[in-house]
Design a protein that fits this description.
2 copies of one chain form a homodimer. Chain A has helices at residues 2-34, 39-63, 79-89, 94-101, 105-119, 124-133. The first copy, chain A, is mainly alpha-helical. Chain B binds a DNA duplex (30 and 30 nucleotides) through helix 3 and helix 5.
DNA sequence: TGTTAAATCACCCGAAAGGATGAGCTTAAA
DNA sequence: TTTAAGCTCATCCTTTCGGGTGATTTAACA
């Protein structure tokens, strides 16, 4: 639900820019049609415009990775799981996490597995990343 | 010296792609000239081509921003090791890193092992943390 | 009272990661 | 030309991770 919300906004922006570009192109096309037509100039203009737009778009796409924040939403993670996630992000091994929480290795593993499925990731490194992006844990730079 | 090496490669790639695009454009131009000329198709083609190229270029540029930073202390990490470290911090597995760098799994593991000893850590999660702390890699919040 | 979610633990298995060591190749430097 | 560093790849071995399944206990809840 929230994801769709966010994505929709992005699509609207992109769509809007696309539409604007199309209009610009139409204007250019019209102008160059009524005057002496210069194909090279026309092609170069379109190329440059789309190139600039593409660069901006590419940057945006890449940059968007960490901009998405999930305020308050903890994705159904329980308290214990958040606790484990914190230790996970500190670079501790499963055994070390188990020791810190005074539970067995198996229990720690169970929690971690549940975290993975809730975060929809496959490795602990990805879990750490996602947790950081979603501000589920303390991030060093904020 | 080594940096120039790498940058040169990038420039060559960019240059090559640029040149190829120009050739493609010339061909399209020629074909559309001799037949019935379709301006919309011409414009759309150029637009799409440059858009794709721009997106790719934009991503590359943005991604590359921090790779050439921090000439300071890298703890004796070689260029290749920094490259591996970057991918490591992206949450990739050893196999995925190997695939991205077009080397064998064993090579990737060797690099990673060397990184561990140079960073004085034992696990990849710790390596990521230390790399982030020392600004050896991209930190999401800066 | 029955149900549900959370937390705990166990066992098994395969995949991934990590350590140790050796070795071939290339390039830059002494 | 010898040396050193960097990159590459390999093999063997151990540990850790991760997936799957099932079970118990407790607390909250309808």
């Amino acid at each position: 639900m929230k994801k769709l919300h966010k994505l929709n906004r992005i699509y609207w922006i992109y769509g809007g820019v696309m539409g604007l570009l199309m209009i610009i192109l139409q204007v250019i096309q019209y102008k160059t049609m009524v005057r002496e037509f210069n194909l090279d100039f026309y092609g170069a203009s379109i190329g440059i415009l789309f190139l600039i737009f593409g660069i901006w778009l590419g940057s945006s796409i890449y940059r968007r990775k960490s901009t998405d924040k999930y305020d308050g939403d903890k994705l159904g993670l329980s308290n214990r799981e958040l606790e484990v996630l914190e230790l996970l992000a500190q670079g501790l091994s499963n055994q070390e996490i188990a020791d810190k929480l005074f539970v067995s290795l198996n229990t720690a593993k169970t929690h971690i597995s549940n975290i993975y499925s809730k975060l929809n990731v496959k490795r602990r490194t990805q879990a750490i990343q996602k947790a950081r992006d979603m501000a589920l844990i303390d991030s060093p730079k904020e």
